Amino acid sequence: MKIKIKKYVLPLKHTFSISRESHDFQDSMIVALELDGKTGYGEATSNPYYKITFETLQAEIEKVKEEIEGFQFREPEAFHAFLVSKNLSNFAICALDLAANDLYGKILGKPLYEIWNTDNSSYPITNYTIGLDTIEKMVDKMKEMPWPIYKIKLGTDKDVEIVRELRKHTDAIFRVDANCAWTAEETIANAPLLKDLGVEFLEQPLKADDWTGMEAVMHQSVLPVIADESCIVESDVEKCALHFNGINIKLTKCGGLTPARRMIKRAKELNLQVMVGCMTESTVGISAIAQLIPQLDYVDMDGAMLLKEDIADGVIIQDNGKVIFPTSGGSGISLR
């Protein structure tokens, strides 16, 4: 098996802002694994919140490159266990795991959802994210991209006002993501107002470690609450079951498709709603997420839709939200 790593700087259509940061470009690491004439692709993006850069990811993988290339690859689960044993970050493991799954499917000539015995005839529509901005610019972004479901990024002292104004311009479903910016009191007070404005659920309103606050929210919020920053790895699912109505799994944070599938299974056993989200990945990462959508209640895989220029071909998301899956195996990814 041969491994190649390349850095891409992905330009965004608009400045993307959340409660704690803003950016116009997204650094991304693309990993290619080559074996038996097939190439699988995986991706992990940089993230200041988790102190992840392309350079740190590349350095991690370069240290174990020879061991990776010497690994006798048969199937993704064993490869993932091998990567975990090398003490790599989950972001690095994710890129390699996504590439391994894509490679595996291409070798078998089957898409991953088919290998996993899931039926892709029914699946949730992705939301489209409206980043924090002036109300006028947030309205303009919605008008630029008419969509049935919007995720609205919040975290200001005028959050309800923002949603109230956006509601004047669309009948779409709203989801609200405060990215840890609210208190429990704010969340409980905002929830009925936002419910009346057509908000479906709240995502991670409190700081990731505010479990006491989340317990109060769980008992008093009139809207369901989905964990994001509080749900990073497999062991977090059990704890989230006591404090949230559902979880948002990020492949980069948990370490790829392999652990994500186990998290989905466990969440369903605990009667949690399940969402998978993205980190402004290109079509490389989005095509991997798409393989999971038959198993999900919600999905946030609009990363490539937010880019000015994409770098890959794979899954296509049409204007009505319908997903066109590639006919090739794995996640169906090819680099442009």
Automatic annotation (TrEMBL):
Gene3D superfamilies named in the record: Enolase-like C-terminal domain, Enolase-like, N-terminal domain
Binding-site positions, Mg(2+): D177, E203, D228
GO molecular function, one term: magnesium ion binding
EC number: 5.1.1.-
CDD domains the record matches: L-Ala-DL-Glu_epimerase
Active site location: K153 (proton acceptor), K250 (proton acceptor)
Cofactor note: Binds 1 Mg(2+) ion per subunit.
Keyword Magnesium: yes
Cofactor(s) required, per the database record: Mg(2+)
Pfam families: MR_MLE_C, MR_MLE_N
Keywords, in A-Z order: Isomerase, Magnesium, Metal-binding
Superkingdom per UniProt: Bacteria
Coiled-coil region list: none
All residue ranges annotated as the Mandelate racemase/muconate lactonizing enzyme C-terminal domain in the record: 135-224
Membership in a protein family: Belongs to the mandelate racemase/muconate lactonizing enzyme family.
Protein's name in the database: Dipeptide epimerase
Organism placement in taxonomy: Bacteria, Pseudomonadati, Bacteroidota, Flavobacteriia, Flavobacteriales
